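Example for tutorial group B:
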């Protein structure tokens, strides 16, 4: 059985058949249990989260037991197990898309750090393919929880774009980096990736302009300067690159040292040595 909470709550059997889970309260109960697969959730927590924002019924425990009975009929009696003071969903974490996403995103980030961008890209693509907006749609009151998972998703997107840059494919990353930069104007790691991509595509003037834009935003909205990564990129942009030898050209060879001049017959011998004896004139 697979459970989906990255978006509206859904259930699918291993053969692909959909399992109907009708009713907002029933979907809320399943979502609350799916956030903690294999762990017993106390009755008080279930009541608080299933009726989040609403007044629970007078006999909340009996109402919860009725919901659990309906969920068992939908998923199978063994799917929801009674535990000490609560209930647990008897599935592995990987059976819930949210937890599978979290594991894959972490695996992808580790592969990227280990210098394996191709593997990282494949794993992160699998992770992000699980996402359906809005996250935790059947728990509308859990805005803080939903925001936390949205932040994790953005981290996975950043890792994926970094993998594209590491693979030498900055052109593929730039459109998404530009859109995300507009959506998250204060996300420094995201803007650092965009500046790197602009440099890698031979657009240093645009990279400098992008740096200046984020610098002004940080100063105006937060009263801070860019962090170390952005400052280091800015320094690199301002440092002229050494001139490269054109392709096919040979670097100039060093000038050879001048050869010593040949000794002249009239050169005086060094002090302390005897010169050659003069030839004897022929006898008359």
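The residue assignment follows.
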């Amino acid at each position: 059985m697979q459970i989906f909470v990255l978006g509206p709550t859904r259930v699918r059997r291993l053969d692909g058949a959909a399992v109907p889970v009708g009713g907002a309260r029933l979907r809320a109960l399943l979502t609350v249990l799916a956030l903690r697969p294999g762990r017993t959730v106390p009755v008080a927590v279930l009541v608080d989260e299933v009726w989040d924002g609403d007044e629970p019924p007078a006999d909340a425990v009996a109402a919860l037991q009725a919901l659990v009975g309906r969920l068992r009929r939908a998923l199978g009696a063994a799917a929801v197990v009674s535990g000490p003071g609560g209930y647990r969903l008897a599935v592995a974490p990987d059976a819930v898309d949210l937890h599978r996403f979290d594991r894959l995103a972490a695996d992808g980030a580790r592969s990227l750090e280990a210098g394996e961008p191709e593997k990282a890209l494949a794993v992160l693509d699998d992770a992000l393919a699980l996402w359906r907006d809005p996250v935790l749609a059947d728990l509308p009151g859990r805005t803080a929880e939903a925001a936390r998972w949205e932040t994790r998703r953005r981290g996975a997107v950043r890792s994926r774009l970094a993998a594209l840059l590491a693979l030498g494919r900055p052109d593929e990353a730039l459109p998404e980096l530009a859109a995300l930069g507009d959506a998250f104007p204060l996300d420094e790691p995201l803007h650092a990736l965009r500046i790197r991509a602009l440099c890698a595509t031979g657009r240093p003037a645009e990279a400098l302009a992008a740096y200046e834009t984020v610098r002004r935003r940080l100063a105006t909205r937060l009263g801070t300067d860019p962090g170390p990564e952005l400052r280091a990129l800015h320094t690199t942009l301002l440092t002229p690159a050494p001139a490269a030898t054109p392709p096919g050209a040979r670097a100039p060879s060093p000038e050879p040292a001048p050869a010593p001049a040949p000794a002249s017959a009239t050169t005086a011998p060094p002090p302390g040595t005897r010169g050659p004896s003069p030839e004897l004139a022929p006898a008359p």
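Residues 97-238 form a domain with the Serine Threonine Protein Phosphatase 5, Tetratricopeptide repeat fold (CATH 1.25.40.10). Compare this with the pattern of hydrophobic and polar residues in the output above.
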